[in-house]
Amino acid sequence: MDDKTQRERLEQELRFLKESFEADVISKEEYEKGKDRIEKKLKEIKSLEPDAKEERKTEEAKKEDANAAVSSKEGDRIKLKVIQDEAEEHGHVHAQAEFYDAEKAEEPAQVPKEAIYEKKESNFFKYAAVFIVLALVIFFSYSLFKNKKEIEQKIPLEFVALCSSDDDCTQEGKEGFCINPAAKDAKCEFKDIPKLNVIVLNDRKSCFNCDTQRVLSILESWLGALNAKEISYSTAEGRNIAEKFGANSLPMYILEENITQKQNFEQFKRVFAKKEGYYLLNENTAGSSFYFKRESIPNRLDLFVIQDDKSSISAETNLKEFLDAFGEVKFGKHLPDDKLTLELGIKAFPTFLINNQVKFSGVQSADTIKENFCKLNKLKECEKSLSKSLV
Fold first, then answer.
1. Are 163 and 178 in contact (CB under 8 A)?
2. What are residue 93's phi and psi, to 5 degrees?
3. Which of 57, 199, 202, 321 supports an S-S bond with 251, CB 3.0-4.6 Å?
């Protein structure tokens, strides 16, 4: 088989191997192994091609010389015959000899038997390669099917119950219950989770810093859906609630006793205090900002800081611009161990207290301090513009 035929057969085999892999007939490992084998043979054939071409050229040249020699001899023979015939019968037979020679010259060339054999051999190898690949595909498919059947017969399917406990039954917004746990007829049932009732005692008219949305969102993430009811301290009901639970600051968050049935209660129970059959969120976690029981002192500002603390130093630096602009402000500075700090239970520093009642925390710009102060006090300096950036 010549190199060209073998190369074509190998290239066709490589294409078929790739198609078999893309169709998931053979594995990637089988594909890579076959591919390496074919590419290696193709490289060997490619390296021999120049020598093969030279050999073919040499053989063709020899054949042409041989054909030329034969033609020369045949021509001489015909010419000699014609000359001999002319001596006997003059020109009639000469024409016949020339006519006969022309017919032989126009006779079509015979296809060499070697070429026909090589073509048949090429087709044979193509069909053989296809047959081998198909046989391999059928063999591996049958083996996989047989192994799967044997495994299924030897290893019985393990029974798995739909649920083994209530924890296996989950659905958003629902409470799940496992009926007949771990049994064949186990199933999950779901009920709507009842919302947890929360009373929020507040006084938005007197407290600019008493928003409740952030804390309610946190409680909901801990305990699930809430049914929040806000009651104003300025109403008779509000004052009664404040007295009943001993409120010192607002907002106050009062949760019903069934909070203990919530899955995450044990994780967060330390921030609640039980009183009168309810659970109260402590003041620090609630972010209570309004000390409604304290006397209101207009135009007063207190600052609670830690000595040499970086944030406290920044707060004092920004505050200086405000104090320089507001000459009438009564100012007081307090450290963690001071009486007022302990009395209010302040644990975050720096913290500001306006008019002895409303607090806000953090490092604030001079303009933010002015805006908060002027919400509770009406001074002419409130019209001034101060620095909005932090120093």
1. yes
2. -70, -25
3. 202
- Calpha distance 291→250 (Å, rounded): 7
- How far apart, in whole angstroms, are the C-alpha atoms of residue 26 and residue 32? 10
Each residue's pLDDT tens digit in the chain (391 positions)? Answer: 566 677 788 888 888 778 777 776 677 888 888 888 888 888 887 776 655 555 555 555 555 555 544 444 444 444 444 444 444 444 443 444 343 443 444 444 455 555 455 555 566 677 777 778 888 888 777 777 666 666 556 555 567 888 999 989 988 778 889 999 999 899 999 988 788 999 999 999 999 999 999 999 999 999 989 999 999 999 999 999 999 999 999 999 999 999 998 888 999 999 999 999 999 999 989 999 999 999 999 999 999 999 999 999 999 999 999 999 999 999 999 999 999 999 999 999 999 999 999 999 999 999 999 999 999 999 999 999 999 999 7
Chain centroid to Cα 204, Å, comes to 45
Express the helix, strand and coil content of the chain in percent, nearest 5 each.
55, 15, 30
Sole residue written with tokens 């699930």: 224
The number of residues in the chain equals 391
- Asked whether the beta carbons of 276 and 247 are under 8 A apart, the reply is no
CA 329 to chain centre: 56
Tokens 């859906």 -> residue:
225
Q: For residue 305, with 0-12 CB atoms within 10 Å meaning exposed, 13-18 middle and 19 or more buried, which class applies?
A: buried
The β-bridge relationship of strands 330-334 and 300-304 is parallel
Question: By three-state DSSP, how is residue 345 classified?
Answer: coil
Identify whether the C-beta of residue 306 lies closer than 8 Å to the C-beta of residue 299.
no
d(CA 25, CA 136): 9
| Angle, CA of 288, 381 and 387, to the nearest 5° | 75
Which domains does the chain show, CATH number per domain?
3-154 (no CATH), 160-193 (no CATH), 195-286 (3.40.30), 300-383 (3.40.30.10)
Phi/psi of residue 266, each to 5°? Answer: -60, -30
Q: Look at residue 278 and give its three-state secondary structure.
A: strand
Question: Is the pTM of the predicted complex or chain greater than 0.70?
Answer: no
**Residue 334 burial (CB count, 10 A):** 19
Residue-by-residue DSSP string for 182-199: TSTT-EEEEEEPPPEEEE
